[in-house]
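Tutorial handout. Part one gives the primary structure; part two gives the three-dimensional structure as tokens.
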Amino acid sequence: MADVNTASAAFLATIPSPDQGVWHIGPVPIRAYALCIIAGIIVAIWLGERRWVNRGGTKGTVIDVAVFAVPFGLVGGRLYHVITDNQLYFGEGKNPLNALKIWDGGLGIWGAIALGAVGALIACRRRGIPLPAMADALAPGIVIAQAIGRLGNYFNQELYGAHTDLPWGLEIYQRYNPTNPDDFLNGIAIGHVPLPDSPVHPTFLYELIWNLGVALLVIWADKKFRLGHGRVFALYVAGYTAGRFWIEMMRTDTANHILGLRVNVWTSILLFAAAIAYFVLAAKRGPREAPETLWSKDVPREDADSVESHAEVAAAPDTVRDSAADKATEDPKPDAEK
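Part two.
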């Protein structure tokens, strides 16, 4: 009896997994993973737009950039995943067409960033604005979007670590799909039968929390030091890869290795070093980009002047903003007293 009570207490102290990650409305599947990706994109665009306008950029530019960057990024993210985990799609008994099934999960962030940057570059050149400044505005939103996307891994029961007895261990269950017994992703947990290693380290949750911390760090550093010329984005890359390094080492899912380390561990090491180098070298380019360099080339001059004034007030010290606000609310004096 004591053993049963102990087991029950241990179970209650763990984090349960969702019974399923896919629901159907008629023949249409609603996938939690896709919803999390979409929610992350929306948040990244919203925050990026606010930051871009506060820096002096033209309103609506981030949405225009996203029209190019998002589809490019999705393709790039899938390509990175397929290349680095090619054994899942190619070889004896594998169906290469499954590589196209992006809805089943599998996006590599660095492929998404790399090809997404190509799309963003195209959009920035069309608008006549610098890509590094746009990257700085988008950086916090991107890492928050990554955090939201990790919730999709929770619903898919993927990206977890080894067995743990810690209170926040994640319970993972056997899922059953009557139409395809090998398709666990689209199955449903019946009876909450735990997998052999359950409970496990919720490494997706570790990364989610780390990403939110990186977002706060980036926003704070940008506000305090007025970073520019891509240095905000470099700080995001360095912060994210520092966390991804140790979290990746905890994961137990199948991955390719180079010299005994997972491919994503090597990617994190190389990108961390590159980001730190860029952060230091870009400081030589001087202060943050002037607001007038962020105007879209198709914006009328009178609108650009309004954007510049808004950016100057937003960037000014609190005492200057307060003085401007006081001046704006003063009672107008008669012409004779001016």
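Part three, for discussion. Residues 131-156 form the longest helix (26 residues). The beta strands are 22-25, 28-31, 173-176, 188-194, 257-258, 261-262.
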